[in-house]
Each structure stands twice: as structure tokens, then as C-alpha cells.
Amino acid sequence: MTGREALPALGLLLLLLLGTPGTGCAPPHPRPSIVLILVDTLRADHLGAYGYPRPTSPSLDAVASRGVLFEQAIASSPWTLPSAMALLTGRLPSSHRVENDGMKLPAGIPTLARVLRDAGYRTSAVVSHIYVSGLFGFDRGFDHFEDFGLSRDYRFEAGMEPRAEAVTDRALEQIRASKGRPFFLLVHYFDPHWDYDAPPPYTTRFTGPYRGAMTGSYQKFSRYVQPGADLAPEDLRHLVDLYDGEIAYTDSHVGRLLEGLREAGAGENAVVVVTSDHGEEFKEHGSLGHGRNLYDEVVKVPLIVADLRAKGAARRVAEQVRSIDIFPTLCELAGAASPPEVQGRSLVPWLSGGRENSRGAVSETIRFDAYRKS
Asked: On the chain, which terminus has fewer CB atoms closer than 10 Å, C or N?
């Protein structure tokens, strides 16, 4: 079997591991364990579940087949630090105030981990970048917080970020350590972020014949980040090929995480949420990367909520929602009260089969002196 043939087979295997397809809802089951998978720099439109023709994401597509996929989910910021903090506080960056380097979450702002821990959950996190580390207050409320030492001695150029394999290994340790107690686990994968350098065989999974000098190294393509810096079509295509390889590599370890969840006996009483902090531009509006602009390529992120306790058909929601809505959603599913200061609103009505109107979404950044808001 070739690597390309193995991808659909893995999706079928995950369906068998996770069980009969279902839709997320809140039936009268015991409190679920919660796994929040945050994949850095992941564009929604590069996943099979969102219509991408390449087989980049069989594991994530299998999660979508068990739950509710939100077609129009909007992140609160186009880069990691303020966006991830918005996710874990339910507040916009201008409210939680962790908007740039040198800032830390104020002591009085509750986090999702603290609320769930107070409700009796065992809380743990495995993160893989400085901008989701304890340095900025992300560790608040977690019984166990693993950032691989990034908050102690981080150097941008040193390539210290652990790969998805190491992140999954540590996350599986936390699942096994729960020993039947309801748990909240945050798993952050950094791999799709540049540099685009997935390990073999993923580094060449989608690359075609290419004779140019472009690599996935940010140093190599940084000169083309700004609008007006033209990039040859074949070089741009090669960058996208390498980026897709990173997604496929990360997806393979998401599959391993889900299999470990099942093996630990937690798969039938769990809620799995998949989302991203932001996407990535590939010259659709002239730029590369992320952080400066607020186009859909950057702020429209995947959001899948699968309640593995439920049975039924998967659903898709076309109405617009926000990443800040995840906090109150998980609180409601856990039977915990969401703090009144949270600016998001629970998605449970949609998970239960109901409908609501689209929600107005705000995205904002002060990164690189951009000072932009949409």
C-alpha cells in the first residue's frame, strides 16, 4: 500500500475505532472528558472535511464524521498569542489584554482550565510553542502543564518546538494518568506553522516535480512576505505542497491520539474539539504568512465538536460562530457555570440539533504595529 492509499484507509480505521458516526449534543450522560485539539496555523479550507481535494486530514475528517462541523468559525486574532488566549478565556484580545510580547494574563481573569478544575476535572495541557506557554499565563488552572521548557530558555532561531510525535506521546501519558476521572486535556500542535519541514515521508507527500530553490524555511521565503514582493507561481505552489505535508503529518498523530483515547477507555465518554488559532496566507491578497491581515485565509479556522457519547448523523452548521464561543460551550457540556465576563456564547443549541442566527465576529491585532480590527 502506498502512502497516498494509506490515508483513506486510516480514516476508515478511525471510524472503526471511534464507533458509529454521531452528532454532538448534551444527553444525560456522566460528565464527559474533554480533549481540545489546537492545531497552529491550520487553514480550514485545507482539510478534506471542508472540501479540500488533497487527502491531508483523514483523522480530522473522521472526527467531523462523528460531530458538528462549523463552516464559518472566526478566530479572534491572526496570530497565536492573542488568539489562543481568547480561546482559553472566552474574551477578545482587547478584553484579556494579552495582545503582544511582554504581556501576561491579569490575575483576575478566569481561564477555561481553572473553571473546569473547580468543577472537579483533572486539567492538563501539552503545548509546543512559546506563545502558548506559561510565560504568558497559559498554565493558569492546569494541574499539569507541559511546554517542553519553552518558557524557560526559548530562542526563536533554535528550532526548539517539539514535533507532533513528541506532543502526542506526552498527551497520551496525561490521558492514561487520569485513571477514570473526568479530564480536560489541551493538546497544541505547532507543526503546520512555518518552517514547512515535515519529516519523511510527509515532506514529499504532495510535492511534484520542482527544480526551484524555494524551501519551507521562513528565512528562505521571508523576503516575499509583504505585498508587492512577487513570488513565482512554481515557488508558491511548492510552498503550499510543503504546508500540506505538515498538515498530513500532524493529522497522523491526531489519529494516534484518538486511538490512545479509545485504548484508555475514555473514547465513549468524551467530547473532542478541533480548532486552530489562525490560518495562513499564500498570496491570495499579496502576502505570505500571518499576523498582519484579517482576511478569511487567516481568521477563518476549522471548528469541529464531536460528542462521542451521542449517536446519529454528522451535521454541518453554515451560520457564523466565533472561537470565543468554545469556552462557554465546554463549560455547559461539563455542567460548569461560565463566568459572566466571558464574551462568547455557548454552541450547545447547534450541537443539540437546533438553529440560531449567525453571530457577529470580531478579529483584531496590534502585531507589527498593524492595529487592525474587523
From this structure: N
Place of cell 453571530: 359
Q: Read off the amino acid at residue 353.
A: G
- Per-residue b or e along 147-165, where b marks 16 or more CB atoms closer than 10 Å to that residue's CB: bbebbeebeeeeeebbbbe
Q: How far is CA 279 from the centre of its chain?
A: 10
Place of cell 506532543: 167
Tens-place pLDDT, residues 181-229: 999 999 999 999 999 999 999 999 999 999 999 999 999 999 999 898 9
Contact call for residues 35 and 189 (beta carbons, < 8 A): no
Q: pLDDT tens, 303-318? A: 999 999 987 779 999 9
6: how many CB neighbours lie within 10 A of its CB?
15
Work out the angle at residue 304's Cα, subtended by the Cα atoms of residues 293 and 98, and round it to the nearest 5 degrees: 45
Residue whose grid cell is 466565533: 322
Which amino acid is located at 18 in the chain? Answer: L
DSSP 8-state assignment for residue 340? T
Task: Fill in the amino acid letter for 16.
Answer: L
- Collapsing DSSP states into helix, strand and coil, what is residue 8? helix
The C-alpha cell that represents 57 in the structure block: 486530514
Nearest to 93 by CA among 272, 282, 279, 294: 294
Helical H runs in the chain?
Answer: 3-18, 58-64, 80-89, 93-96, 112-118, 164-177, 218-221, 233-263, 296-299, 326-334, 348-351
CA distance 314 to 325: 20
Q: Return the residue matching grid coordinates 511582554.
A: 102
